[in-house]
Amino acid sequence: MPERNISSELILLVSLNDEGSFSRLWAREKGRRPAMRGPAFMFNDHTTSMTAEEERFLDAAEYGNIPVVRKMLEESTTLNVNCVDYMGQNALQLAVGNEHLEVMELLLRRDNLARIGDALLLAISKGYVRIVEAILAHPSFQASERLTRSPCELQDDDFYSYDEDGTRFSPDITPIILAAHCQKYEVVHMLLLKGARIERPHDYFCKCPECTEKQGKDAFSHSRLRINAYRGLASPAYLSLSSEDPVLTALELSNELTKLANIEKEFKDYKILEMFLNSVFFLEIYF
């Protein structure tokens, strides 16, 4: 028996019964971008159902329906602007993920808006420079720690989502580390002007209280934090914009990575980064 195309049958059925419904369905499917599920989606409890009002609100945010979003924000007394869909995404994340700048700006005017940090990381990963700029102008970024500390270091509010389904980024990733990983030169420059920096990790054998605590609590997460930081530091985008002498900085980093590659052999990224930095140094010298 040939495989049935349920989507085609559904559209055909709607078109036969209601031309207007077909037009709306086609417009929605055409404008939809695939939602990004977190790695723990299959194991999380998603029994909480949305109200009809919340579903309409999230739908409007996802598809960039500015009049509906504005009307609901201004007139509804029962709307929870931080409600999430069945994938764990709130209206701000849906608007940012679909590059709806105007909808995002409407949402950012609301007090007590959650997951602004997640929205920033999402915009950075997609390279939406105007959206990144608009989010960075939000009053919540007046505190510099918002740009210098990772989600795992800011677990005292709702700036980030702390369940794996609400975000698809590692909890030790800061905005500038992500921008460096993604080679977003303009965003890196923007964040540097805001005072954001990538801190050089402590020596591997450092016995300071902070390193001792992190190593004892979760050795793997501590190692992952280190490799993510070094990937950011070795990024051409970060090297070229943050250092007065990128070649010298690359050589110093290469020496550090050579040592780490011999110590943490399970992380092949150290060797890859070392080879990359050596090639940068070679090209600068001979060309």
From TrEMBL:
GO terms for biological process: regulation of cytosolic calcium ion concentration; single fertilization. InterPro entries: Ankyrin_rpt (IPR002110), Ankyrin_rpt-contain_sf (IPR036770), TRP_dom (IPR013555), TRPC_channel (IPR002153). One of its GO terms (cellular component) is plasma membrane. The keyword Ion transport applies. The keyword Lipid biosynthesis does not apply. Residues 206-268 form the Transient receptor ion channel domain. It holds the Pfam family TRP_2. GO terms for molecular function: inositol 1,4,5 trisphosphate binding; store-operated calcium channel activity. Keywords: Ion channel, Ion transport, Repeat, Transport. This is Transient receptor potential cation channel, subfamily C, member 3.
